[in-house]
Design a protein that fits this description.
By secondary structure, the protein is mostly helical. It has one domain. It is built from 11 helices and no strands. Helix 7 packs antiparallel against helix 8 and helix 8 packs parallel to helix 11.
């Protein structure tokens, strides 16, 4: 009984303070104009890209009507580029989430309170993931749906739109988890930026030469989102499962590494 009690105590201790710290992390977005400014910026970037693909490029040689097949191809092309933009965006916006606290000594101050080291990592993920998803994916893609509706003169299939949004949201959360685990290993911004950005850009090239890897690299979620939005086809459920497991794995690894490094 004593062994079981001790084990339970240790398990509960690992989450000590997680709720309070999650609220603090989230308030850095929702209690300020940060989320609104970010949403406006990303809505402009994402929809500017789509407008370029839908309205500008097809009319460079004169007015042209957007046929259904062309619209699907445009949606396919756009989503691939938007995925790269989203994946890069979360890295750029979240690079200092843990590193800045480590450099400034805030981590030591936080850990002097009733807050377990693993709980801080979980709070960073849970506190920052929703604002990043909302500002980088959800709100910009509302206007994306409007543009697709105007281009096709019909409401875009809601299931396909939701599927693409869900996959891109998973990519954002995964990238955040990668940033967190790297931030427990190093305080170098160059490393935290280079690894996930390089992997994101290299994923498509790598899978061209090694097609088997397309079901194992979460950075390829943009390809899945493209097919879902354009054609309503989920090409690989395995990649979705792998991406979820990889995200959880990164968080566990970050918590383990952070606890050891702070001893």
């Amino acid at each position: 009984m004593s062994g079981a009690t001790a084990s339970t105590s240790r398990g509960a201790g690992a989450l000590t303070g997680v709720a309070n710290q999650t609220r603090r992390e989230a308030s850095s977005w929702w209690a300020s104009r940060r989320w609104a400014v970010s949403a406006l910026v990303w809505t402009g970037l994402v929809n500017g890209l789509l407008a370029l693909i839908l309205w500008v490029v097809p009319n460079l040689d004169g007015p042209a009507e957007i046929a259904d097949t062309t619209l699907a191809e445009s949606a396919l092309q756009f989503t691939g580029l938007a995925a790269v933009l989203a994946g890069a965006g979360v890295v750029l916006m979240a690079q200092g989430v843990l590193i800045d606290d480590r450099r400034s000594g805030v981590v030591e101050w936080l850990l002097s309170k009733p807050l377990a080291r693993p709980a801080l990592i979980i709070a960073k993920l849970v506190g920052h993931a929703p604002p990043l998803v909302v500002t980088i994916v959800v709100l910009p893609w509302v206007l994306v749906g409007v543009q697709l509706w105007l281009a096709g003169e019909a409401v875009w299939p809601i299931g396909q739109w939701l599927g693409a949004v869900a996959l891109l949201s998973l990519l954002v959360v995964f990238q955040l988890a990668v940033v967190l685990v790297l931030s427990t290993v190093t305080t170098s911004r160059a490393v935290v930026l280079a690894v996930p950005l390089g992997a994101l850009l290299a994923a498509d090239l790598f899978t061209t030469f090694a097609p088997w890897a397309s079901d194992w690299l979460p950075w390829g979620l943009g390809r899945l989102a493209s097919l879902v939005l354009a054609h309503g086809v989920l090409a690989s459920t395995q990649l979705v499962v792998v991406s979820v497991l990889a995200t959880v794995g990164c968080v566990v690894a970050a918590a383990w590494r952070f606890e050891r490094s702070q001893r």
